[in-house]
Amino acid sequence: MRLDQEAFARGMWPEGLVAALATLAVAWPLTELLRDSSWLWAAVLMVAVVALTGAVLRTLDVPPSLVALAQLLLGLTGLMLTYLRETLWRGLLPTGETLDQVGVLLREAGTVLQTYAAPAPVTEGVSFLLVSVLTLTAVSVDSMGVTGRAPAGAGIPLAAGFLVSVSNTGRAMEPWYFAAVAVLWLIMLAQQGHRVLAGWSSADRREARGDDIGVKVPSYRGLGQVLGALALVAAVLGAAALPHLPPTFFGDGLARNPDARTAGGGGDVTFTETMDPAQDLQNQSRTPVLTYRTTATRLEPLRVTATERWEDGRWVAPQRTQSGLTQVGEPIPPPPGLGADVPVQEQQLTVTGNSLEPPHLATSTPLVALDLPEGAAYRFDPDDRTVVLQTPATSYGTTYLAVGGSGSLPEGVGASPADPGQFDPEVLEVDPVSRAAVEELTAEVVGEETNTLETAVLIQDHLRSSAYTYSLTLAPEAQDDASDPIGGFLDTRQGYCVQFATAMVMMARTEGIPARMAVGFLPGDPQPDGTRSVVASDAHTWPELWIEGMGWTRFEPTPGVRSEAPPAYARAQEGGDTEPTTTTVTQTPTSTETEAPAPAPEPEETWQDRLGDLLPLIGKILLGLLVLGLLLAIVPWAGRRHRERALAEATTPAEQAEAHWTWLTRSLRDLSVPDPPERSPRAMGRHYRSVTTLNRSGEAALARLTAVLEQARYGRPGSVTPGQVEPLGDDVRRVVEQVREATPWNVRANAALLPRSGMEGIRSMLGRRR
Asked: How far apart are CA 83 and CA 102, in angstroms?
């Protein structure tokens, strides 16, 4: 019974269970990133295999290095049997086809993670990647935190996996994610603390001090527990008091939830939160964000939202209050400021597929009616004419006004300046950092013009001229984090739609024209069935200016290489709209007419392709590392055989007592404990007590070893009985384990991987063969 208890304690089964649960807790946030949890069962199985393997091998007293190696080998075997079974030779050994299939699965996972937003589909590649990462994490956590008895170090792989999982949710961290991992990690620390504290001096132990033999050794266990509890309370309260930064991201695609796409499960779009569609403009996914039909002959951009807030060198999403919205389902109010004599034409737009998630909805403007499917609801923000969707709507219909058309605008439109008192001050605020540069350029472009419509057209045409270059690559002085991004753009004259729209907004505001920036999509491409398809790279921004007689009016300052032609009312009267010969760096024109398909360009080599090319080399390196690991495992194996060889050869109890002592001395020698001088067993015992740190149970175990050894050497033949020898194995393990716990980590690592006894054992085996 005692042996069973000792073996169970040596196996550290409770610690292994907590380590496995902590590994699974790290993956908890991933359940919100994926559409289903089909991968989770395989992950739980592999983590359980790793934990069970470690517990069983520790129970059998297998060296730590071999425990970790066995966990890794079984984990890799489980992954191959689960995902690569058909490529294995005789269903057991990996082949070249196995490596090729690994490359296929990783490329598939990379495509999904770069293309889709949460919740993304769970393909076989995604499942393989997640389960593989969790398996390796489980091996790391169990090896460090349980087998290596360093749960503090195990926090490193736990923290790495946790940060990746949580950061990729694309929003602020939910508290229960942190609580689950933190509590389990603290339990691991507490388990180690309990094991260490259990070895501290107890209240009933006494030791000699001078002439007083009865001095009690003070107990520090209670003090240690109190200090630990106080440290935990301080950490929790301190974390609550410290300011928290917003979540960051580690990559593209799924790692930037708002920047990616999903085939039908919805997904936020970058600019609806950051007001900058740069990531969407570079998205190569052809998965539709929006599919629609329209009765219009001249297509309009699809507006999602607008903002007038420019803060710290970037546009900020509007802050809407519930009190400022119309009631649910209330009809759309007429567009403000639109004169009755301005020619308009009602147009219909029917969306047949929508993957934008609430509250966002895309439609041409100015909107006058919205028809949602049964069960869907909306509210409307009359300030910036934005629909705030309350429930998902995969389809809907809208009616909007096409302003101007082929008709002429009435005289007097734009002749009167806007009354600043009727507008939010933000729509007239000019960026203070770039004000001087903006005012200087505006004065040069506008001249003496006072009509706000003509002023806006002059600013628009200037920005559309060949003096500017459309490019997604910005000069450092024009980027968001520059001290003056607007001034940097006006100086370099290179940017994309955000920079062009921002420049026009600020230039209009210097002329007293209220202006804001709208964001949405270009009209997309026609499809064979008569619909139009809008994808992520169709994201677009444009300015809206208040023109007396027309209200909030759309303009198009982005060069024609990346936008539609300006509306008819926004074209210069002389010469009409000419497509300027602008230079482009990263984008191709978006056409609204059907064109003959151009030859497909050669696809650029992606990191997945390069990874596929490197897989054979990676496989050879891994195979070499595996062989090296097996060779290194020989040394610990030989060390164990050498330490216990005398015990295997002993036949009498006296010989077994000597063999146990040899086992002890060789084991302690591996931990850099000097051998005792060749004296009496009592003297050798005193030597070990003086150079090691043992608690009461360890000293008792050492005393039993020396007492039995003394009786075996100096007692009459046969005086040592098998009953006296039987518990000596547990005594050796107890002494060695306590010495190991008090030994520096580098010495412990060397004793586990390259023990001195292992080299002695190899030399001994080679000498016997000679």
From this structure: 9
